[in-house]
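Anyone up for a design puzzle?
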């Protein structure tokens, strides 16, 4: 497969490089879509995108379930392809097949303090809520350092992620700054955006947070999450979507009761009904109790979600035929070759800066 990734035409500004990824833990849902996938689809139109499957990270909590991780890896690629990520433009690749990432993880682990890692708010939250107890693996906190390497191996300017990932991007910026200061002679007053022109190997990447920072689940209480059973999956059927939307409870009793437009139903309306004039109209009528029931709103909402998901179902069906998994693996192989070309170059640049540039090497 030929790469159609955007490249810089003579005289024009080069496209931004973008990196992001997902840990394969199960099917993707609407929270992932509005948090990050939607941004990826827009970015791949104009930029050089690398999309990583963090299968190494999956082992930090599920080392005893290798076959589940393998199945989830294939599934998540199918979800991406179904959503519209185009492997001819964007490199879709496997973390475990990019050795430079593991090597850079070691180097960055020496630039961040133990307290930087253990004080990372997202990690702390996971340690409290994932039920890992106090015998979580040493590798679990380590994944945050690994994520710095995932990102910096590609020297991207932009990292599209959900709101919960912001502390990780902050850590990554810190690791990049430190590296550039220690090994590339970048002064500590140099602005983040000027690091590359001041000789730094790494750009200081920025997070790009999704349109909806935190989408609640259909329970209206928690963030949408597979493990809480409150998710609408990208691969749900039309009927499943209708059923799940039907389960949303607002406590409103009649068509003329003044509704609360800050409820979960309206969070969904704002997230998934595209026409802003229609959203405003629904908000007005619901808020005033102008002869509109929850049932009306739910029906229209489910239709809009199904319009979004229908093309994904069609694309997904193409990969669910016999031989679909092999096609997915071929896409990963081709994307990983593109990823290794860049990551190896980065590693060599980093090693040279660190006085470790002994000789060149070739990794397939
Ligand atoms: N930790 C991210 C998540 O759970 C997945 C991830 C791994 C990632 N490496 C990354 C995201 C690099 C962005 C960039 O969603």
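Challenge accepted. My sequence:
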């Amino acid at each position: 497969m030929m790469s159609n990734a955007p490249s810089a035409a003579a005289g024009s500004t080069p496209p931004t490089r973008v990196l992001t990824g997902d840990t394969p833990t199960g099917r993707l849902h609407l929270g992932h879509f509005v948090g990050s996938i939607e941004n990826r689809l827009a970015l791949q139109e104009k930029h050089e995108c690398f999309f990583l499957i963090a299968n190494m990270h999956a082992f930090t909590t599920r080392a005893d379930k290798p076959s589940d991780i393998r199945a989830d890896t294939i599934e998540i690629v199918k979800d991406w392809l179904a959503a519209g990520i185009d492997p001819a433009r964007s490199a879709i690749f496997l973390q475990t097949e990019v050795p430079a990432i593991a090597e850079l993880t070691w180097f960055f682990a020496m630039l961040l303090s133990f307290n930087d890692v253990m004080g990372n708010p997202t990690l702390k939250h996971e340690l409290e809520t994932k039920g890992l107890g106090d015998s979580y693996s040493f590798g679990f906190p380590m994944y945050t350092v690994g994520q710095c390497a995932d990102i910096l191996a590609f020297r991207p300017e932009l990292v599209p992620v959900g709101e919960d990932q912001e502390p990780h991007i902050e850590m990554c910026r810190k690791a990049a700054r430190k590296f550039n200061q220690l090994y590339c002679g970048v002064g500590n007053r140099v602005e983040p955006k000027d690091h590359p022109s001041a000789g730094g190997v790494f750009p200081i990447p920025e997070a790009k947070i999704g349109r909806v920072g935190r989408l609640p689940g259909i329970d209206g209480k928690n963030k949408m999450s597979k493990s809480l059973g409150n998710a609408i999956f990208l691969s749900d059927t039309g009927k499943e979507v209708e059923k799940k939307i039907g389960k949303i409870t607002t406590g409103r009793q009649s068509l003329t009761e003044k509704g609360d437009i800050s409820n979960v139903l309206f969070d969904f309306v704002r997230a998934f009904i595209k026409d802003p004039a229609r959203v405003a109209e629904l908000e007005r009528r619901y808020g005033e109790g102008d002869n509109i029931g929850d049932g009306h709103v739910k029906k229209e909402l489910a239709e809009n979600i199904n319009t979004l998901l229908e093309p994904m179902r069609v694309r997904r069906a193409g990969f669910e035929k016999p031989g679909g998994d092999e096609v997915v693996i071929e896409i990963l192989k081709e994307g990983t070759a593109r990823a290794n070309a860049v990551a190896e170059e980065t590693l060599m640049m980093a090693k040279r800066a660190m006085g470790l540039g002994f000789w060149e090497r070739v990794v397939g």
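A detail worth pointing out: The two ends are 17 Å apart (CA to CA).
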